[in-house]
């Protein structure tokens, strides 16, 4: 098993038709904030970085983006006076200097006092919770309040927020409700009132514990609601009137069916206009919304997705049961990780390129501001930054630089810089070229169904004309063509959710979703082809598909030595392995696949002898085989090589 995608913080595609695709895990590694001088190019405003050449004796440096030679007041200090020979500039800089921007390709510094950055309010954590009849039937309301309580208590104990941070609680069924400072609950039924945050929010450190202790009263209050109507937009719009900057954590159990945000089931992936309007309101107020879909029925998330465009995260819990520890633990883990992660607020990202190159498109949950500037009311460390760049036919290296101005959870204003080099026309790993094509295909599919697969077929023909490995390309494109995002027979909720994942996730998760890693537990060093032919009836296998981790036991495999109790196929916690060599080994393998994963995958046990639906789901990842009338990977190769 390769660790390449676990350690990588950026990947670059081949130059295909004059376009390069870049994926950067901007916040993969937590960087120490440096209190050092800021050095920028006087011509293009790019930042000093490890690819810049310092002109001896250290009073000048050359910008890699525009080649301008810049002068510094205080010279860079050399460790020694050795001259650079044939080694790359970045290697020489790391050996010669200690100044962080010349040593690291990613660094973060405190923003100077006079630096232009919008003053932000302290973080606001706003919870918008479904309290409808369905939410109570599936146990969502109670399990969410328990998870919020534990997550906030952890945030308080670890002091991970600004001391002025606020917390607020909104609820919704047919109408919107707000929890007041005195513990009472107000129902809003008429025109949307203008609310002051001081009237309905609590200081995270000084007041929240008392509020959380009284949540039993909240459950009792909503226990009398018998309405099956839900009006998510009413609660979101109400919350948006009170805050400028912050995060809304919205929990939903069923499709909104009341008010202007009422939805109807459609096969389209296009957004609903009222949700697009509300998304623009949130963005204008620097509020990010993250959506937790805890559902036992279709939601029409595709129509709601404009709500999360401002850097929001999306979580999907199909068949949610708030009384089942498997679902509750996953929800709690995700919520606590998001609340306690190093979220950046009011972030602005500028992407600069070498002279002659230009950004064509940025993917994912961000707001385009123009002139290669992109806004993120929240920027999550679990997200990546993906973009296309027009570079023409040049063969020399091309440089891309991302600079994000932001405010962290403690109220410190910083600038984070990452610089990436693409080696001209060199292809590199074919996975990253295929991944870039698929991200483009996903966006086309969201606009018009059926166009994604057409674009993939055209892209594969183009890539076959490059020097990339054609067998590998055929394998990846075979997998992408069978991905559920492009399968119109699949629920639009799943398709839109996976579209979100494919345009926002980290490189490691993207790689696993693109072509899952399948291993035989008996020989875990070798990844197997995704084919039924790789599976033997008495074998035990692990498959990492990015968001799901499968443990598959063949029909002839005896699980009694692996588990300490009787098990069945389904979503699981993997908490009952036997305390023996095999049980410990499988537990270690699972830990290996999930370590440092920003979002914990869902664990699924598949016992082939049960012939369950989970076996069918597992086999849908065997992308090398023909499936649903689509050719095998080898057929893809033969069809395009001729």
Structure description:
Residues 39-73 form the Zinc finger Sec23/Sec24-type domain. GO terms for molecular function: SNARE binding; zinc ion binding. One of its GO terms (biological process) is COPII-coated vesicle cargo loading. The protein has 642 residues and is of the alpha+beta class. The chain folds into 4 domains: 10-115 and 344-423, Immunoglobulin-like; 124-340, von Willebrand factor, type A domain (Rossmann fold, 3-Layer(aba) Sandwich), CATH 3.40.50; 430-511 and 631-641, no CATH class; 516-620, Severin (3-Layer(aba) Sandwich). Helices cover 30% and strands 24% of the residues. It is built from 20 helices and 28 strands. The strands form 5 sheets. Strands 8, 9, 10, 11, 12, 13, 14 and 15 form an 8-stranded mixed sheet that branches. Strands 3-7-22-21-16-19-18 form a 7-stranded mixed sheet, with no helix packed on it. A 6-stranded mixed sheet has the order 24-23-25-26-28-27, sandwiched between helices. A hairpin with a 3-residue loop joins β25 (540-544) and β26 (548-553). The chain is globular and about 75 Å long. It starts with a helix and ends with a helix. The model has no long low-confidence stretch (mean pLDDT 92).
